[in-house]
Write a structure and sequence with these properties.
The complex is a heterodimer of chains A (313) and B (508).
Chain A: H1 2-28, H2 38-43, H3 46-55, H4 62-74, H5 90-125, H6 130-144, H7 147-161, H8 177-203, H9 206-214, H10 218-230, H11 232-235, H12 238-243, H13 250-255, H14 264-270, H15 274-302
Helix pairs in contact in A: 1-15, 5-6, 5-8, 6-8, 7-8, 8-10, 14-15
Chain B: H1 12-15, H2 21-32, H3 41-46, H4 48-51, E1 54-58, E2 61-64, H5 73-76, H6 87-93, E3 110-116, E4 120-125, E5 139-143, H7 148-156, E6 162-165, H8 167-173, E7 183-184, E8 191-196, H9 203-209, H10 212-221, H11 224-231, H12 264-269, H13 275-289, E9 303-307, E10 311-315, E11 321-327, H14 331-348, E12 353-359, H15 364-369, E13 376-381, H16 389-392, H17 409-419, H18 424-440, E14 444-449, E15 454-457, H19 488-507
Parallel strand pairs in B: 11-12
Antiparallel strand pairs in B: 1-2, 3-4, 4-5, 6-15, 7-15, 8-13, 8-14, 9-10
Helix pairs in contact in B: 10-13, 11-14, 17-18
Classes of the chains: A mainly alpha (313), B alpha+beta (508).
Chain lengths: 313, 508
């Protein structure tokens, strides 16, 4: 088992190193003209352009920049943003933003799991019945109507109906309600439909039919057999979901004016903010890779039949 | 700021006005580039006090020594580049300057009391401000509202004092009570214009653009109103501008607007678009440019024009004249390009011109400017201080905005002469003569102003400081907020009173 973990850990570290190296190198291929507006590009003479580029540190050779990046990183210095938040410490930017994304994603996760899973179970138990139909209608509506329309509807009309704030304010908990609802709508549907599907699949299997014939109660079968098997494909994503709580939602954070992580990577790429892009890529790739790694481990606890090695130690 | 290591992008605006500043900057830049100029970096930095014409005489007095007479200085010093800062403070905060509310210095009517990144900036009244009695609003909240629809809804709920509306958002409140509160914000100083590549690698266009009648055909054949309607379908004429320099921001000693000077005023008030006239100019141009068989004189047939990644084509040396119109690839830019092509093809004749559209995908600077891949582009420029030299100096033969690579010694001489005149009326007259030369010769085609948008507000118009230069949009001294939104009628009435007051001031 230990060997398996070490091997997986090694693979994870190599993957992260490769991702960072590739992104770092690709960023250096971006033309430096992107750092200037059209007017600046023509208005500034070469001396001024060079001075600016030197001031943001992009004139050094790639290897020198990589060395500086790694040395600083090893001292816990994430560096400074170059263009998106000029000169601001990246650690300050992230600490300002991560808390909001974590907060809303955690709320949404809890709401989605507590509504989506019972809904999925209820739909499966009442397959073909009114709850199933209503649940399916909800899932189809959420999946088929463009999300931006639903979010606008929630923000403008629901806020009007219940007199809730349209924008988020940290000191006003009532303003947290609508963003949480908006963030949860899709994942409630996701949890519900997948859980329903897995449960229905399991229920049709022979061992369940046999258990029923044996005279076990429906609830016992559901909890001890069906749910435990059905949760496995969903549970594998729990660690990733948890680690990636820090990644915000581009649309919803924008809509409710939540200053979180949503869209930060896209904005930093557009602004050619190499320093910020590197840190974000490093952070997200690390969390994603470890999310998968932990998912494997977690699922082996949820379902003891799953072994991570060919033969038991 | 004068140190190239700090990378101030807009430093070029003031570099040549303050005595010794350019030398100081270039000395340091040379040292940073590894050149030996006989001095060390520390020596140059230490010499700032002696070499650069900026001196703090006492706690409240700053003295600038200029390179020469600068009659427009007052509009110039309100640029943020001139804001003074205490050296001791800079030394203390170093690279962290401006990265938080604590690492800034304040001397105006407000200071930042709260700064929530990407969310909210709260500015509180500065009780130490010299004119604090005229600071009417105790605090100002600048809040990020990412979406226009939310902005309008928040305004309707009374939760924000002002909002902007796009044309689409305007259409949603048409025929509702809110329509009466929408007004069109003023134009900005930015001018949009078409420029031509006089050194194009496309031999047909290169030959044609030297011809005055061809340039006048382009000048009269593009309808500014139709193009302006892309951005402003409700009132496109409002945003058209037919002079190179903006109106309403430079007044002479008699209160006369620079753009009302003889000659210029005719351009200002008369839209040049005239399809018939354009065709006449084109016919004359064809007579002068082509032989009887429609061959363009001086152009070798079969020349391959390599303007990749924008376009690649072979010039046949015959009519129609190929024109490569290059623009960005946004939806608006494409719409704009299609309209320009339609207008030129219809008005100048498809037998005379063949407009090829080229779109840059990633970087206009790299794909178009750097590689010279264009014949015709539309572009815009800001106007930074209240003197015609601000932009006319930049479009001379050696000017930084002369991407057209034209040679205009007559214009250069007129600008040079105007730059040597320091009495405002004569100076404006001389610059107007120079601008007129450019327009008469159709070297550039101005067509639209920048900015302008529909707005709704509860801030009573003209209660805040007005002006065009510096950071006027952030000035709130004297601002009055009313409970109900400002109506169109109220806005028009206040505008009238403001203009009358201006006229009265000018009269005095």
């Amino acid at each position: 088992m230990r060997r398996y973990y070490l091997s997986k850990l090694g693979q994870a570290l190599v993957t992260i190193a490769l991702v960072v190296l590739v992104v770092f190198t690709l960023l250096r291929f971006m033309p430096t003209t992107g750092y200037f507006t059209k007017e600046e590009f023509r208005e500034m003479d070469d001396v001024a352009k060079n001075a600016y580029l030197r001031s943001i540190g992009v004139l050094d050779p790639t290897l020198v920049q990589l060395k500086n990046f790694l040395v600083k990183l090893s001292h816990g210095d994430l560096g400074r943003s170059m263009t998106l938040y000029p000169k601001s410490q990246i650690k300050d930017i992230l600490s300002d933003k991560i808390k909001y994304s974590v907060m809303f994603n955690a709320f949404s996760w809890i709401v989605s799991a507590f509504i989506g899973m019972p809904l999925g179970i209820a739909m499966a138990k009442n397959k073909g019945g009114p709850i199933d139909s209503a649940g399916t209608a909800y899932v189809v509506a959420v999946r088929s109507i463009p999300s931006i329309i639903i979010h606008f509807f929630v923000q403008v009309y629901v806020s009007r109906l219940f007199n809730l704030p349209m924008l988020f304010y940290i000191d006003n908990p009532r303003s947290w309600i609508l963003p949480t609802i908006s963030l949860s709508l899709g994942s409630i549907a996701g949890y519900a439909i997948w859980l329903r599907r897995y449960i229905v699949d399991e229920e049709n299997k022979d061992y369940i039919k046999f258990a029923r014939v044996k005279g076990l109660s429906q609830n016992y079968i559901m909890v001890r057999h069906v749910f435990r098997n059905a949760i496995v494909p969903i549970a594998i994503n729990f660690p990733s979901d948890f680690l990636l709580l820090i990644s915000g939602s581009l649309i919803i954070e924008g809509l409710y004016s939540i200053p979180g992580m949503g869209g930060l990577l896209i904005k930093s790429i557009q602004a050619l903010d190499n320093n910020l892009v590197q840190i974000l890529v490093l952070m997200f790739s690390t969390l994603s890779v470890f999310g998968v790694f932990l998912g494997d481990i977690f699922v082996s606890f949820v379902d003891p039949r799953i072994k991570l090695t060919d033969s038991p130690e | 700021m004068a140190d190239p290591a700090h990378g101030a992008k807009n430093f070029g605006t003031i570099r040549n006005v303050v005595k010794g500043l350019a030398d100081y900057y270039y000395d340091l830049a040379d040292i940073d580039d590894g050149k030996d100029i006989g001095k060390t970096r520390d020596e140059v930095v230490a010499s700032f006090g002696e070499t650069v014409g900026v001196k703090a005489l006492d706690r409240y007095t700053l003295e600038y020594t200029l390179t020469g007479p600068t009659p427009y200085l007052l509009s110039y010093v309100c640029l943020e580049l001139f804001l003074p800062i205490e050296q001791e403070f800079i030394d203390q905060v170093g690279e962290d300057f401006g990265t938080s509310k604590e690492n800034l210095l304040y001397c105006g009517g407000y200071y930042i009391s709260e700064w929530d990144r990407d969310k909210l900036v709260v500015m509180a009244k500065n009780e130490h401000y010299w004119d604090k009695d005229h600071i009417t609003l105790k605090s100002l909240n600048f809040e990020a509202v990412a979406d226009g629809v939310s902005g309008v809804e928040l305004f309707q709920r009374g939760q924000v004092a002002t909002t902007r509306l796009t044309s689409e958002e305007l259409s949603t409140i048409k025929s509702t009570e809110w329509e009466d509160y929408v007004y069109l914000a003023d134009k900005t100083l930015t001018t949009y214009w078409f420029i031509y590549n006089f050194e194009s690698r496309n031999p047909e266009f290169q030959a044609a653009i030297q011809n005055l009648n061809f340039r006048k055909a382009l000048y009269t054949g593009i309808d500014a109103v139709t193009l302006s309607a892309i951005w402003e379908p409700e009132d496109p004429e409002f945003f058209c501008r037919y002079t190179l320099l903006p109106e309403g921001c430079m007044f002479d000693e008699n209160g006369m607007d620079y753009t009302d000077y003889p000659g210029l005023v005719d351009y200002k008030n008369n839209p040049p678009y005239d399809a018939e006239l354009a065709r006449e100019y084109m016919d004359k141009a064809i007579e002068e440019l082509c032989d009887a068989d429609g061959n363009i004189i001086g152009v070798t047939p079969g020349t391959k024009v390599d303007m990749l990644p924008i376009a690649e084509f072979t010039s046949d040396g015959k009519l129609p004249i190929d024109i490569l119109y290059t623009c960005g690839s946004s939806e608006t830019e494409m719409k704009h390009a299609l309209l320009v092509k339609e207008m030129l093809t219809n008005n100048l004749g498809s037998e005379n011109v063949n407009v090829i559209l080229g779109f840059s995908n990633i970087s206009f600077s790299d794909e178009v400017w750097a590689l010279d891949n264009w014949d015709l582009v539309h572009d815009s420029y800001g106007f930074r201080y209240g003197d015609p030299s601000a932009n006319l100096n930049r479009i001379t033969t050696d000017g930084t905005l002369n991407d057209s690579e034209y040679e205009v010694p007559e214009f250069d001489a007129l600008v040079e002469k105007a730059n040597e005149i320091y009495t405002i009326n004569e100076r404006y007259a001389a610059f107007a003569e120079a601008e007129l030369w450019m327009l008469d010769n159709a070297m550039i085609k101005p067509y639209m102003t920048g900015g302008g948008s529909y707005r709704m507000t509860r801030v009573v118009p003209y209660t805040t400081p007005e002006g065009y230069f510096g950071m006027v949009s952030y000035k709130f001294k004297g601002a009055v907020i009313q409970d109900t939104p400002v109506t169109k009628a109220q806005h028009a009435q206040l505008r009238k009173e403001y203009e009358e007051a201006l006229a009265e001031l000018a009269g005095k």
